[in-house]
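pasting for the record
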Amino acid sequence: MQQVNLDGKWTVRQEGGDLSLPARVPGDVISDLLKAKQIPDPFYRENERDVQWVGEADWTYERQFKVSAALMRGERVVLQCDGLDTFATVTVNGKRIATTDNMFRSFEWDVKSYLQVGTNTIQITFKSVNDYTRKVVRERALHSQVGGGHPTAHPCFVRKEQCNFGWDWGIILVTCGIWRSIRLASISTGRLADLRIDQEHVGGKVSLGVEVGVEATTRKALTVRTTLRLKGKVVAQQETASRGRNTRVALQVSDPQLWWPNGMGDQPLYDLQVELLDGAGARLDGQTKRIGLRTLRLDRHADEWGESFQFVVNGVPFFAKGANWIPADAVLARRSPEMYRSLIEDSAAVNMNMLRVWGGGIYEDDVFYDICDELGICVWQDFMFACMAYPSWKEPFMKTVEAEARDNLRRLRHHPCIALWCGNNELEQQSVVKGGSERNMSWEEYALLFDDLLADVSRELAPQTDYWPSSPHSPHGERADFNNPDCGDAHLWDVWHGKKPFEWYRTCGHRFNSEFGFQSFPEPKTVNGYTQAQDRNVTTAVMEHHQRSGIGNTTIMQYMLDWFRLPGSFDMQLWTSQILQGMAIKYACEH
């Protein structure tokens, strides 16, 4: 399969304005404006307020590219977009190809008839999501954001990174752009369209069931060659005649090396290569997935305290130790493999074995899951819904959510690190009410999305990983009574939000604590980077502006005075707050 990579240098311009500047793909308009020095650093002092116009504008990305005669000889030439954020109109050589409405989906269109040998032009225009949400909210003013969020936008109506609109820990930076790779691919005869790998562990051996989806444009015989390697050595191989759209291949591993979470054993990773061959044995397409041989399930069984909530790997129950993961940078274009590796290696070094990818952010890049595979960090994967009511009664919304779920389940399901699919973050505790309301979902509306659609798609596409509807969720008793200590998972914020003493953590008897925490100020080096000298007091406007938890600075200082003398300088207050935070987390983790 021939490809033309369209990543790299583009230009971006503001629609209806004079601003035009170099752009980088993958990327986003905030990062492009920062590089061109067209906006100030939004993290400095109160500059955040001065960049909000970016999210109100429409932006067009454009570039030229070359197409060869060889590429055009393909039966189909498809434009593949791994991520467009969010309302995009795609135009090739002045002709509209398609529109999109979901940051989390991948898209593909046959554009051969729009291309020409030689120089071509592509434009992608992104409409303001803020403008859309202000219009649609008139239909029903849904509960749409937590403290510190965007004052006018309603992100529950758009499939976009929800914390882009601010959170009680984060900046408001509503952006847009081509945030993942984009390319052209020439297809002839056939290609691999899907790849699913199931494992069966019996008697010390592992059977791999590999289901290969083949998209063929011919009735001629095609062959699927499947090869499993460990450290470059072939462990198993099979060639199978392609039968229609789906071909099932079985591989046997007689001496499997099992994958284990951090601290429990090694993380051997096998390379599973699938190739599509034509009748002469020439390769038409290929995919390689790196897998770990293991079983990993959520175990819930009745016991003397109620119902267990624990993960079991290779038949061994283990205690999940870890943290919640939010996007590594509010400007997504600034993330890098090096940043991911540093953060995940730090997680492993402090003996974590699980990270929960929180539902208000993004489905992370492939490299995140690759590194978790390598380091034995299990991943609790939320679908991207958090703290809001969502319009599940809208058919177009449900259709794009289903497509989003299918895209990401197919992309991620082979990773040995994946431990759980979870429908959402905290909807059951704050966004659903019996009978419903203008602002909140009813339990019937909630069920359409989280009990039915996402549960069904997860079971269809990734049945060997369990699905959990919400975090927190209590599976027994009154569903609205979240944080049931006898079953399910819990979000324990009684210390930070409830102002209970650190010692309260010692009374906790919940089965699985998927959120808890306590805040500190950053270290002086960080604070000095976003303040001027006159700002360096916890009660100044700038320090308050950077605090998105409404109770934040006051709460830190109140607890500090419970435990310490008042530190005599601003720097010592910052450092002491970090010691204070460490004490809070220590109480919780050790209990």
